[in-house]
Amino acid sequence: MTPEQRETTIWIELMRKRLRYVANRSYALEIEYFLQRMEDNLDDERLIDDCLYNIQMLRIQGQWENSVLN
Description:
By secondary structure, the chain is mainly alpha-helical.
């Protein structure tokens, strides 16, 4: 395992710990889907970049939805 793969694995574990405290389970499951894809494909940098992009878009969307509701 390369240092980058180890770093990615640690980041995935940290994200999963944070997801335990997310009230919106649908949102958490969507992020978990991308975390699992990353974990299963640590050697595919392009796929990992795509998953990170998708996770970031989900986070932005969630923040936007929260601000609209408030």
